[in-house]
């Protein structure tokens, strides 16, 4: 989602990087970013697991809540999942530093795909959320609104050339989209306990814990890496 050539953010840069950042250092090889492959595998596993029940594209066999009187529900649900899948694939590319530095055009194009997919999937999600189980509706609506907002702000900051803030907002957006993975873990794990937790508590927890915890972890990571020199394709 960035343009032109690479440069190191200087102490006087207006992108929002902290003053006093050191000189740029050679980027680490991709294989020294061990979190990229697990992240990609987690996303692939989540996508396959959640899309498999819809492989026949038949509403009669798909797991869905009642939606009487709203015939557009099923096609909207499929569109929501399709664009959500695009978002989860492209967000991995956005977080890959090696790709951003060596293939800035791929980073830029995949970033725009992510923004479009996230906003469309999020808006559709807000339309169909009223058919979700009543428990957790507020949580999933809040997460979706935060996802749309952070993604939009990330795109705006990139267009403004404020790349440190662009990075921050896109990390927030990543934190929210990965909430879905936590949701499955919380519900499935809670039901698998020797003394299963009431599913109502699990559903409510799944709609809140994931994205709130992820945002806290991302904020910690931002503080942890705040003084690192920024090398951005601009």
At a glance:
The chain has one domain. The N and C termini lie close together (9 Å).
SSE arrangement:
Elements: E1 6-8, H1 36-51, H2 73-95, H3 97-102, H4 104-128, H5 137-159, H6 163-177, H7 179-191, H8 199-224, E2 231-233
Antiparallel strand pairs: 1-2
Helix pairs in contact: 1-2, 2-4, 4-5, 5-6, 5-8, 6-8, 7-8
Describe the structure.
This protein is mainly alpha-helical. The chain has one domain. The protein is 63% helix and 3% strand. The protein has eight helices and two strands, in the order E-H-H-H-H-H-H-H-H-E. A two-stranded antiparallel sheet has the order 1-2. Helix 5 runs parallel beside helix 8. The longest helix is centred in the C-terminal third of the chain and has 26 residues, at 199-224. The chain is globular. The model is unreliable at 1-24 (pLDDT under 50).
- Helix amount, in percent? 55-70%
Number of strands: 2
Tally of helical segments: 8
Oligomer: single chain
Q: Please, what is the average pLDDT?
A: 80
Which residue ranges are poorly predicted, with pLDDT under 50 across at least 5 consecutive positions? 1-24
Which percent band covers the strand fraction? Answer: under 5%
Provide the structure class. mainly alpha
> What is the overall shape?
globular
Distance between the termini: 9 Å
Element-by-element helix/strand order: EHHHHHHHHE
Radius of gyration: 19 Å
